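quick q for whoever's on today - can somebody do inverse folding on this one?? i tried earlier but teh output was garbage lol. tokens:
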């Protein structure tokens, strides 16, 4: 196995709506002496993608619905933020506030099918105290557009994984997961292959895209302003893919 190298691309400026994100990534990589080559993979925090696509919402411009007002009162949350959460949700999975908590928790099914806190509505790394960022309208399409632009600028066949940070059922802490893909396989089906002892594997399907996203989180710390992580040396085969492939079908969800 060849070694895998993971490094942050430093120096990316604050992103504004309409910015050429791929162009800025190339510019910063060139400055850092990080040549992008065929087979490299970029993990990109959705926050910079969302900002470039203008997915910033000013809470001062949000009028909460009756449902948002009731839920916000119960959970001690900003009703304007709750309204944004409701707009981006298919359903509220659970909303609760434990005794002693300052603010309650909303677990929602995002319109794209992801189960996460606050339907991925987030105010971290947003300038000022009046803004929240939501997910891109179609993260897979965003990843494909970035990949196409990177190819246009470099001629390199790259993979792109757009990430967000989610909590996990039954485990403490948060980690990066894949929410948008271009070129990179979502899953690797190893059923029928053999393990190190010659046993045939019957249920081994690694989530490659999530593994890459999780590894990117080691360097993608919020205070470091390093939203783009470059992977070299991963063995992968280019294919049409979607982060939707990672979502468990409803008929297999035993806890719905």
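ok took a stab at it. sequence:
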């Amino acid at each position: 196995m060849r070694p895998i190298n993971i490094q942050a691309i430093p120096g990316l400026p604050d992103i504004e709506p309409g910015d050429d994100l791929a162009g800025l990534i190339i510019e910063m990589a060139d400055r850092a002496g990080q040549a992008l080559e065929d087979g490299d993979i970029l993990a990109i925090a959705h926050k910079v993608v969302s900002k470039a696509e203008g997915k910033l919402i000013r809470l001062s411009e949000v009028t909460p619905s009756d449902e948002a007002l009731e839920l916000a009162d119960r959970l001690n949350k900003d009703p304007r933020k709750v309204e944004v959460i409701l707009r981006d949700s298919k359903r509220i999975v659970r909303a609760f506030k434990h005794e002693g908590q300052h603010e309650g928790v909303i677990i929602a099914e995002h319109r794209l099918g992801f189960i996460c806190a606050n339907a991925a509505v987030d105010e971290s790394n947003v300038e000022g105290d009046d803004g929240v960022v939501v997910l891109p309208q179609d993260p897979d399409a965003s990843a494909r557009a970035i990949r196409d632009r990177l190819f246009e600028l470099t001629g390199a066949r790259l993979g792109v994984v757009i990430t967000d940070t989610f909590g996990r059922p039954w485990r403490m802490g948060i980690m990066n997961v894949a929410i948008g893909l271009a070129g990179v396989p979502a899953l690797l089906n190893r059923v029928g292959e053999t393990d190190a002892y010659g046993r045939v594997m019957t249920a081994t399907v690694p989530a490659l895209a999530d593994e890459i996203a999780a590894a990117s989180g080691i360097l993608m710390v919020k205070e470091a302003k390093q939203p783009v992580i470059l992977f070299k040396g991963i063995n992968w085969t280019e294919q049409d893919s979607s982060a939707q492939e990672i979502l468990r079908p409803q008929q297999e969800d035993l806890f719905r």
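fwiw The longest strand covers residues 171-182. also The beta strands are 5-8, 41-45, 56-58, 89-96, 105-110, 115-117, 131-133, 159-168, 171-182, 228-232. so keep that in mind when u check it
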